[in-house]
Structures are given as structure tokens and as C-alpha cells.
Design brief:
It is a single chain. By secondary structure, this protein is mainly beta. The protein is built from three helices and 14 strands. The strands form three sheets. Strands 9-5-6-7-11-3-2-13 form an eight-stranded antiparallel sheet, with no helix packed on it. It has a three-stranded antiparallel sheet with strand order 1-14-12, with no helix packed on it. The longest helix is centred in the first third of the chain and has 6 residues. The protein is globular. The N terminus is likely disordered.
């Protein structure tokens, strides 16, 4: 590659990480194996952990773009600026609630900043519907990275370092 080839290429280099995903809710951390849904507990969609929420607000775990925003509002997909694909799944089987008790503050294609409020959930409505309210954060492209590990334990606050993703 010559000097002029390098000058023409103005793309920013891809970030190399490691990337830290922040806690996306206030509450108690739930290790992957203890999430009350086998698909998540077995890591079928990727490495993950959950938070039993103490309040009904979900925040962005990283800077990125909303790539999934179903009408049921029970889940959001985010492609982080570092190339980490994140699925936030609010509650277990809450898709059955058809959006009842959820309110989104973002839509498909929106750019988000770490710590930004993404959605609210009515914890009483989720309990009344008979569903666990655990907020599950999944790195769906786990296989693209050398390591995905959960750093947090116990009580967490939004933005606390929760998951470390290493290239």
C-alpha cells in the first residue's frame, strides 16, 4: 500500500476493545445459569446475564444504534460502536403482554448513548401477568470475540461495568 492509498482511506480504524457494557437497570445481578429461561440460561443466543430490576427503567449499556425494536416493546437490539451485538430482553415470556406495561423512548435506527433511558416497564403489570421481570443482556455475537465475561455481581446500578467483551 502506497502513501496515496493510505491518504485516500479516511475510515476510522475499528475499535479494538476490550469493551465494557454497563448495567442496563438498577437491581440484583442474575448469573446466566440462573436466568429463569433455558434459552438464555444455556447461552444459546450468546453469553449473557440478567438483572432483577428494583425499578422499571432500562438504560443503554453502550453507545450504538437500535437494530431491533419490536412492537411488543419487550426487547431491543443494539449494535454498539465497537461491533458488539447486544440484545436486551425485558422479562421472560413478556412478549405475551403485547406491549402492555411497556413504554419505549427509542425506535429502530436511533443512535443511543451509554446510560440513555431506552424504555420503562410496569413491574406490577409484569408480576400480575405471571412473568419474571429479569432484564437480560445478551452479547449475541459472542463467537466473534475472544472472551465475553460478566464482571458484576450483587447489587448493580445503571452504568456500572457489567460485561467485558475482549476481541
Amino acid at each position: 500500500m502506497g502513501f496515496f492509498d493510505m491518504v485516500k482511506k479516511k475510515e476510522a480504524p475499528a475499535p479494538v476493545g476490550p469493551f465494557l457494557l454497563g448495567a442496563d437497570a438498577k437491581g440484583k445481578l442474575v448469573p446466566m445459569e440462573e436466568i429463569p429461561d433455558e434459552v438464555f440460561a444455556q447461552g444459546i443466543l450468546g453469553k449473557c446475564c440478567g438483572i432483577n430490576p428494583a425499578e422499571g427503567v432500562v438504560y443503554a449499556p453502550a453507545d450504538g444504534e437500535i437494530t431491533q425494536a419490536p412492537d411488543t416493546l419487550h426487547a431491543l437490539g443494539i449494535m454498539s460502536t465497537g461491533g458488539v451485538e447486544i440484545l436486551i430482553h425485558v422479562g421472560v415470556d413478556t412478549v405475551e403482554m403485547k406491549g402492555e406495561g411497556f413504554n419505549a423512548f427509542v425506535k429502530l435506527g436511533d443512535k443511543v448513548a451509554k446510560g440513555q433511558k431506552l424504555l420503562t416497564m410496569d413491574l406490577d403489570a409484569i408480576a400480575k401477568a405471571g412473568h419474571p421481570a429479569v432484564v437480560i443482556t445478551v452479547v449475541t455475537n459472542t463467537d466473534d470475540f475472544a472472551d465475553v465475561s460478566v464482571l458484576a455481581s450483587g447489587d448493580v446500578n445503571p452504568g456500572d461495568d457489567m460485561i467485558k467483551v475482549t476481541k
